[in-house]
Amino acid sequence: MIIEQIYTGCLAQGAYYIESNGEVAIIDPLREVQDYVDRAAKNNAKINYIFETHFHADFVSGHVTLAEKTGAKIVFGPSAETNFDAIIAKDNQVFKVGKITITVLHTPGHTMESSCFLLKDENGKDYALFSGDTLFLGDVGRPDLAQKGTITEKDLAGYLFDSLRNKVMTLADDVIVYPAHGAGSACGKNLSSETVGTIGNQKETNYALRANMTKEEFIKEVTDGLLPPPAYFPLNVKLNKEGYQDIDEILKISEKPLSVNEFEIIANETGAVVLDVRNETEFIKGFIPQSIFIGIDGGFAPWVGALIKDIKQPILLVTPSGREEDTITRLSRVGFDNVLGYLDGSFEAWKKAGKEIDTLSSVSADVLEAKIDENAPVFDVRKPGEYESEHIKVAITTPLDSLNDHISKFPKKEDFYVHCGGGYRSVIAASILKARGIHNVIDVAGGYAAIRNTTIERTAAVCPSTLK
């Protein structure tokens, strides 16, 4: 038996390759599926099943393409409805993969069709639980994404409580837990950075699985402090339910080198967002006016999804040389398929053509300390939980993912300073503000990590309970 976790850090997402006696099952595949096909071919094995734990909201899964390429059957849990051929399994339905079996455990709560998959080894022993977004390490799935009709997030939280108690916590302590996500995912509040655990460990450490917890306590704690989901989530659910274009076709259309003149003409004619994915240090030194920075080596795809509201928005790319396909692939993982091309020669080509450029002012934390003494305005673009944990006493919270809601707070003429945790998100925020004509913004290099090394007055959490 082979179990491989294929973890994608950008999405904090785990897909799974399972093989036994020449037969393969894939759980929650990424949109680009060739890796799974190649793994099976290398082992002279055949992919028979593609199991989906639920309709994912944070990424476009590869189930449709993988089924087309391999003839494998797509399996969803009870109540799922799709626009493509799929097996809608019954609760406790068993699927044989070589010498092992995979049992569907219907665990509604995160969504109504959410299911976990229990793998039993060759001896019929419960071996591993692929828990999807029902159970994470340190947390459980948020219950607010599948509200529909009269079903509220509290209803879903109640279903999740029952699912965990009746289907998951009854398993033996030594059963391995393979979740769909780890730290960094917006599908939960307090996910661990670990990506593999056990049922026993989660019973001991996961707040949502503690002994003697009432349903009312569970509902309150699971729904407390939930941030609004990113705008692209329902759009990704729609693609995962209805189907989508093969990523290979997207690459053929989008991986198009454009000269400086072609790039400029298309930008003017289409209203495309110019997305610069270079390193923040390079971006600060010079960029195309009104372009938006979201660096490819940070939490790229989720931030694109959170900040560019429409997945059909035309996009033009400025990438590091050689990262064009990588960038287009990562965009497609969250459903952004309308890339019109990339600037051939990257930003250097733009400069050599003598085109207008813009720069971003950036200062050290030591300079910020002096400016605070002069009563300069400071804005913190970290997440609310980070801000509440500790922040500069005079800083105003303006979280990056809701920056548009805070535009009126920023001074129109006076210089002001923005910081995040390490310097990545503040440059994103500053680029958005400059694209909106707010040029008196100054980035704080190194973010809060650098600020901690100064004597700037800081304030600790007032309400630690919001950090669950």
Tell me briefly what this model is:
A hairpin with a 2-residue loop joins strand 2 (13-20) and strand 3.
- The CATH class of the largest domain turns out to be Alpha Beta
Q: End-to-end distance, in Å?
A: 37 Å
- Helix/strand/pairing category: alpha/beta
Number of helices: 16
Q: CATH superfamily of the largest domain, called what?
A: Ribonuclease Z/Hydroxyacylglutathione hydrolase-like
Oligomer: single chain
Total domain units: 3
- Binned, the helix content reads 25-40%
Overall geometry comes to globular
Ranges where pLDDT stays below 50 over 5 or more residues in a row are 463-468
DSSP strand content: 15-25%
Sheet with most strands: strand arrangement: 1-2-3-4-5-6
> At the third CATH level, what is the topology name of the largest domain?
Metallo-beta-lactamase, Chain A
CATH architecture of the largest domain: 4-Layer Sandwich
Please compute the radius of gyration using only Cα atoms.
24 Å
* Main β-sheet description: 6 strands, mixed
Round the mean pLDDT to the nearest integer and report it. 94
Total strands: the figure is: 24
Tell me what the structure shows.
The protein is α/β, with parallel strands linked by helices and 468 residues long. It has three domains: 2-234, Ribonuclease Z/Hydroxyacylglutathione hydrolase-like (Metallo-beta-lactamase, Chain A, 4-Layer Sandwich), CATH 3.60.15; 245-352, Oxidized Rhodanese, domain 1; 362-467, Oxidized Rhodanese, domain 1. 30% of the residues lie in helices and 21% in strands. It is built from 16 helices and 24 strands. The chain has helices at 34-42, 63-70, 153-168, 199-205, 215-223, 233-242, 247-254, 260-270, 280-285, 300-307, 324-333, 346-352, 365-373, 384-389, 424-435, 447-451, and strands spanning 2-8, 13-20, 23-27, 46-51, 73-76, 87-88, 94-97, 100-106, 115-120, 126-132, 176-179, 197-198, 257-258, 273-276, 292-293, 315-318, 339-343, 362-363, 378-380, 390-392, 396-397, 416-419, 441-444, 458-460. The strands form five sheets. It has a six-stranded mixed beta sheet, covered by helices on one side. Helix 3 (153-168) packs across helix 5 and helix 7 (247-254) packs across helix 11. Residues 463-468 have low confidence and may be disordered.
